[in-house]
Amino acid sequence: xxxxxxxxxxxxxxxxxxxxxxxxxxxxxxxxxxxxxxxxxxxxxxxxxxxxxxxxxxxxxxxxxxxxxxxxxxxxxxxxxxxxxxxxxxxxxxxxxxxxxxxxxxxxxxxxxxxxxxxxxxxxxxxxxxxxxxxxxxxxxxxxxxxxxxxxxxxxxxxxxxxxxxxxxxxxxxxxxxxxxxxxxxxxxxxxxxxxxxxxxxxxxxxxxxxxxxxxxxxxxxxxxxxxxxxxxxxxxxxxxxxxxxxxxxxxxxxxxxxxxxxxxxxxxxxxxxxxxxxxxxxxxxxxxxxxxxxxxxxxxxxxxxxxxxxxxxxxxxxxxxxxxxxxxxxxxxxxxxxxxxxxxxxxxxxxxxxxxxxxxxxxxxxxxxxxxxxxxxxxxxxxxxxxxxxxxxxxxxxxxxxxxxxxxxxxxxxxxxxxxxxxxxxxxxxxxxxxxxxxxxxxxxxxxxxxxxxxxxx
Length: 459
Ligand code: SF4
Ligand code: SF4
Known about the structure:
Elements: E1 4-6, E2 27-29, E3 35-39, E4 49-50, E5 57-58, E6 63-66, E7 75-76, E8 81-90, E9 97-104, H1 136-142, H2 145-154, H3 167-170, E10 181-186, H4 195-202, H5 204-218, E11 222-228, H6 232-245, E12 251-256, H7 265-273, E13 288-292, H8 293-305, E14 311-318, E15 324-329, H9 334-339, E16 349-353, E17 360-361, E18 375-380, H10 394-398, H11 405-413, H12 417-422, H13 433-437, H14 444-458
Parallel strand pairs: 1-12, 2-15, 10-11, 10-13, 11-12, 14-18
Antiparallel strand pairs: 3-9, 4-6, 5-8, 6-7, 8-9, 14-15, 16-17, 16-18
Helix pairs in contact: 1-5, 4-6, 5-8, 11-14
The structure holds iron/sulfur cluster (2 copies).
């Protein structure tokens, strides 16, 4: 029986120009930075308290931030060195002021240096169906469920698809809630970004073992790995590895048409299972947990390699000569990353953390890569002028949550934030589809984000 289920015929969502320019670029290791700035809130939930002070020596992987709140995620030093400052920085996502630990290294890194949680692969090549290390599954089977959860918590793992929800909370549903389906999200539906695609090609083994660990914790009946059909090479690689690991009776790959926002959690659950997650509800309310492919790999690194989350894969792409995928330490500064890339110096550029649909602009070269950043998009500025709404309703037609995006722009401009609530602004998944199709170039996502953050501060 085939382990690949091919779903076809979707008309929902929008077909975007994919621009996956870095899809064929193997993951490279960015040299270890000499200075990092590590925010103490890189996750959904409470900010961590610093556990170090200026002048302290820290080692790579040391716990430097923690919180006693239920929803939070631990923070670790991504390089060894000395704490050169406890800073206050502005989080560009919500304009909140947060604390950050600055660490200055004693030694400069080298180009291509093995990252802390990178795997020691044979000949530096990815594991494939012909080279599978023995006993990993047996090893996982011997670790009690509570110990697996504790390791995930201690390692500061959050959802790496962008949502950054603490993984140990997501994987420990309240008593009485049964998770029957685990969905692993490898859709990567946003244009330009290829970090998950490369991970599935180069770290498929680690990802699958991470999924196996998650399945030990949740004991779901169904395990579905969702991949868009524009990544056929990843589908084949994962299919072969599932066979080699002997997981073919429990793991299924679902190939989905490439349409945006296929990878949004609620959209994905509906498209795979026809289950609706209503406003204010969570996937676990319909018996589902969704994890990103990168989260699964991070869980493997934590459990098998005893390594906390101190680095991640990002795509650096856009209007540049050589788009790349990079292993980057958490806290690496934007300026240091741009230094390693050939950036055109005769053009006005916009720098976006994330993709073109959901990302946010950054102008400070000292802004760090955090756990939720999967891409740095470098775009030439051709700023369209915002015009008046022509009531064409295109934004309404494309909204996957059946909202009326046009009203948010109008209410936010007129400071009528409470009225946004009456039009269910909290149900917006910030996919950016409305802004993409708007013929009047109204920055609907900006208005929505402003409206949501003002309402969040009020409540
Ligand atoms: S209103 Fe929100 S969910 Fe709807 S299209 Fe716009 S960004 Fe996406
Ligand atoms: S797509 Fe733009 S112009 Fe058309 S109704 Fe929506 S906000 Fe107005």
